[in-house]
Specification:
Elements: E1 6-12, E2 17-20, E3 26-39, E4 45-57, H1 59-67, E5 73-86, E6 93-106, E7 119-121, E8 128-130
Parallel strand pairs: 4-6
Antiparallel strand pairs: 1-3, 1-5, 2-3, 3-4, 5-6, 7-8
């Protein structure tokens, strides 16, 4: 058995781009940045950033385009795929490796941000609505303190 599974958690480096395929299905592309912190041989703290191209299809592409923006955090599960094509202008063969997302979950929203992550804020700023999977759930306006959870 072979496994092709990618799991990423990072921040969007640009706003998602939504397009429609000739079949009518929507496809959304975005880039995700992930960081790795490590110590080098001298014991100095180093940080490495990697950038990942992500592709989402169908209804999930619409949701990603609507709610995620540059700087939003997201959790992505999918498979790695490399595609190739011939560049029309130079005639060269081009390659692109990307994660074809099966699942995209929005990360925690940053405080004071209306456009990133978990909820969308209306122009009035008072009402917040959940994005998906939360029909009928009322979310607290304040952050939850873990010390208040009884278990």
């Amino acid at each position: 058995m072979y496994i092709n599974k990618a799991i990423l958690f990072g921040n969007l480096t640009r706003d998602p781009e939504l397009r429609a395929l000739p079949s009518g299905m929507n496809v959304c592309n975005f880039s995700l940045a992930t960081n790795r912190v490590y110590k080098d041989r001298d014991g100095k703290k180093q940080e490495q950033t990697d950038f990942h191209n992500v592709v989402v299809f169908g209804r999930q592409a619409d949701t990603v385009n609507q709610y995620l923006k540059k700087g939003s955090s997201a959790y992505v599960e999918g498979r790695i795929q490399t595609r190739s094509w011939d560049d029309k202008t130079s005639g060269e063969k081009k390659y692109r490796t990307e994660v074809v997302a099966e699942t995209v979950q929005f990360g925690p929203r940053s405080s004071g941000s209306a456009g990133g992550g978990g909820r969308k804020q209306d122009d009035g700023g008072a009402d917040e609505t959940p994005i998906s999977g939360g029909a009928g759930i009322e979310y607290p306006k304040d952050d939850i303190n873990p010390d208040d959870i009884p278990f």
